[in-house]
Request: fold
Amino acid sequence: MDRFVAILVPATFFICFYYLNFFILTPSLFIPRRYFAFVIICLISLIMTIAVPSAVSGSYLGFPFGPGVRMRPFFIPEIPLPDFEISAIISRQALRPQGWQYFFRPEYSYTIIVFLFILTLSTGIRIIQQWQQSEKEKVNAELAFLKAQINPHFLFNTLNNIYSMAVIKNDKTPFAIEMFSKLMRFVLYETQHDFVPLSGKIEYIDTYIELQKLRLSSSVTVNYQKSGNPASLQIAPLMIMPFIENAFKFGVSTEKESIITIRIDILDSELNFFALNAKNYSSEKGEGSSQLGLDNTKKRLHLIYPGRHTLKISENDLEYKVELNLNLK
Reply:
């Protein structure tokens, strides 16, 4: 019976740790790169896997430390031996390790090897599963990404504005055509890569805002600021643009003055994005598709930058605000 308990209790601990690591530790600590907490919890689990089953089964292993260590009784052979041989046996067994040293007995090697195998197996399977999910999301979002970047409403409005400028022979017409061409080239480039240079992304945002200004009346004020050096940094596509598109989509009113504030700050490898716009209730009919785009962006942030971003979206009856902090390394 004691042997059965000695096998059953560790097996139960192994099974529990597999699911604990698979569903909690790996997705919450290892993947977000919180390695210190992950290692500490794994070490605690290993100690419990060794100590508790030994104590429960009452085996000679006993609890691995502390004053309650149970040792195997001295082996005294039944066959009569000379006194000097009995003394030698007692001396050798008395030299067995005590206290903390007892934790490193060879009998523990099997438990440690099985524990490490389960740790590696559950962590590897979870990481592969997460990677497959990310790849699936990437494939499913590719078409939506193209549609989100080349917004038909924005496209037609921009082309109409350029046409109007050409009709009246506005001197800025060649400049507008050049900006529109740069915008389209960047969209096509961006869809073919997992990460793009942050400098190019900011240049794309500059062009997008300038083209938006072509169609806006004087009642709309756009406050756009940027600071920091984006050189050598890269960012995943579709991380910032949905928030900027929403600011122009819902923050512009034809009946009253509107203010749109956009700020991008880069400090070392961190990107801080801020967008604030007044709520224009005449644009509420498009909130369904807009919310879908925001949900997709949140999901991509979670998949690509787990534990390396904070996103705060707040709104009231008058304004809508987005704050995003992104660690790009």
